[in-house]
Amino acid sequence: MSYFITTPIYYVNDVPHIGHAYTTIACDILSRFSKLKGDETFFLTGTDEHGQKVEKAALSNKKVTQDFVDEMSQNFRDLIPYLGCEIDDFIRTTEERHKISAQFLWNKLKNNDEIYLSNYEGWYSIRDEAFYLESELTETDKGFVAPSGAPVDWVKEESYFFKLSKWEDKLIEFYEKNPETILPRSRYNEVLSFIKGGLKDLSISRTTFKWGVKVPNSKHHVMYVWIDALCNYITALNYPNTSNETFKKFWPGIHVVGKDILRFHAVYWPAFLMAAGLEPPKQIFAHGWWTNEGQKISKSLGNIINPYDIIETYGLDQIRFFLFREVPFGNDGDFSKDAIALRVNADLSNNYGNLIQRISSFIIKNSDSKVSKPSNYKEIDTKLLESFDETLVHYLKNMNSFQIDKALKNIFDYLSEVNVYVDSQAPWSLKNTDNQRMKDVLYLVTLLTIKISILLYPVIPSSIDKALSIYNLSIDNLTLTNFVNFSPDSINLNIPKPLFPRIDL
Ligand code: MSP
Q1: Residue of 432, 428, 421, 423 lying closest to 377 (CA atoms)
Q2: 480 CB near ligand 1 (under 6 Å)
Q3: Is the separation of the CB atoms in 161 and 115 below 8 Å?
Q4: Any idea what DSSP says for residue 260?
Q5: Per-residue pLDDT reduced to its tens digit, 392-410
Q6: Is 268 in the pocket of ligand 1 (CB under 6 A)?
Q7: Cis-peptide into 270, omega within 30 deg
Q8: How far is the CA of 260 from the centre of ligand 1 (A)?
Q9: Alpha carbons 29 and 222: distance in angstroms, whole number
Q10: Do the strands 2-6 and 254-258 form a parallel or antiparallel pair, or are they unpaired?
Q11: CB under 8 Å to 220, separation ≥6 — which residues?
Q12: Taking a C-beta distance cutoff of 8 angstroms, is the pair 60, 68 a contact?
């Protein structure tokens, strides 16, 4: 199986914040999970560098636009390893490969009679880089604003249009046949009712500024930033060369996006693709938005969360874990200091870290740093092993359907069972009464701890590397397929270092 997963490409008008980090980590988790299953995986991210918003930002920073985007794009690239993410490509829309690809797509649409020249007159929001109908706007004392709260301007200019209206029925037909394409389900319903409400042709070029991919054979037009931006996903697969191995293997791909940009991905993008004779995306998953201590995150409120700061304060895996354990993926979430501390302490420090710490220290002290496979298991042991197999089934089902929070809950519910088992078997008492049984219990708990660690790997990879090193193991030799039967004759342990110190409330 092959698996192509993408983040949206980020606007370079400003520095990265928690929202960007969230989408990137989500894709990293899914990409690592896919790799763990043994699937051939391609994880793409990058930066969206054209359009009026970016041009304006360069101007207000008194920078040459190209210099400005070079500098700002680098901030996004630097953030990736800091987030513990491993990508396969980073794309920038100002790269030559992308301009060639976007212009080719344009020509293809033009040749397929999907584009015509006319005039646009209506509302445009630079902040959202989106056209709006007056009926979508709200009137405030500062004038009309977009549903996002962004200001809008009345624009009137010559423009090329894409025949979006023509694709209404085809899109409905496609989605009704493939309802799993848009997830979660509530978002699917939202998109479908938007399409059924009627699609208007879409303005896809601008003439009032210059910072964009040039429309082929036109002096004054640059492409509307969204047609340019969406095309990044196929540029990275070597479009226009659709017969190369990478394209054939990885398209159609899976897009993870914020709910605010679902319409672009689930309506415009599939229509462009179909009109160009290409397959629509395999899946589009829309996630929710984070607030900060109950408040909308915005520059004007001064409550932007800097990913560097929170990782510095709480630790990388603590943050990765919190973001995906605390809030169902797809829902909105609230970022609060207390919630992080409670979550990390309860799950990572107490339930998981403490189990590893006390069992492995005990083995080092009382079992010569080593455990060996028991000759037979008691009924209570077999039950615990069977319960792991059930946990694994749920975990796989949930991870495969983007329900990362549920998959984590499966693991932590199981960890609680293992902790109850340890308390009931009390190896510290067995030490004096039945040394062999003590060793058998320690082996089983160690084996299950290793298996649980592998399931946690996509979410907290660097901590799992550390955890596995206690057992002289490395994730590189363990996959979700070969670890099912994993039960080595003996396991040698190294002295553990605490993985998750408790966070003070
Ligand atoms: N450039 C476009 C995407 C083009 S993709 C072909 C864009 N960029 S963005 O930088 O503004 O936003 C990128 C992502 O960040 C979006 O998915 C958006 O939902 C996400 N977030 C921005 N703020 C967020 C939160 N407060 N919480 C969660 N995600 C948020 O849109």
Answers
A1: 421
A2: no
A3: yes
A4: G
A5: 999 999 999 999 999 999 9
A6: no
A7: no
A8: 7
A9: 36
A10: parallel
A11: 158, 207
A12: no
CA–chain centroid gap for 266, Å, is 17
Residue with tokens 């190294």: 494
Residue type, 448: L
Distance of CA 372 to the CA centre of its chain: 40
Contact between 328 and 358 (Cβ < 8 Å):
no
Which DSSP helix (H) or strand (E) runs through 50? none
Q: What is the pLDDT of residues 22-31, one digit of tens each?
A: 999 999 999 9
DSSP letters spanning 68-101 = HHHHHHHHHHHHHHHTT---SEEEETTSHHHHHH
Which residue's CA is minimally distant from atom 24 of ligand 1?
A: 19
Question: Strand, helix or coil at 216?
Answer: coil
The Cα 77–Cα 20 span in angstroms is: 12
Cβ neighbours of residue 82 closer than 8 Å, sequence gap 6 or more: 307, 308, 311, 316
Q: Where are the alpha helices (DSSP H) in 236-353?
A: 245-250, 262-263, 269-275, 307-314, 316-325, 337-343
Amino acid of residue 14: D
Two structure tokens written together for 337: 């200091």
> Is the distance from the beta carbon of residue 43 to the nearest atom of ligand 1 less than 6 Å?
no
| pLDDT above 90 (res 69) | yes
pTM as predicted: 0.97
The answer to whether residue 484 scores a pLDDT higher than 80 is: no
From CA 305, how far away is CA 376, in angstroms rounded? Answer: 53
User: What's the mean pLDDT in 70-79?
Assistant: 98
Instruction: Tell me how many helices (H) and strands (E) the chain has.
Output: 20, 20
The residue whose C-alpha atom lies closest to atom 21 belonging to ligand 1 is 19
Per-chain mean pLDDT for the chain: 96
Could you give the C-alpha distances from 88 to 49, 91, 281, 454, in angstroms and in order?
Answer: 20, 10, 19, 22
d(CA 158, CA 119): 4
In the chain the first and final C-alpha atoms are separated, in Å, by 45
Minimum-distance ligand 1 atom for the alpha carbon of 233: 6
Beta carbon of 10 within 6 Å of any ligand 1 atom:
yes
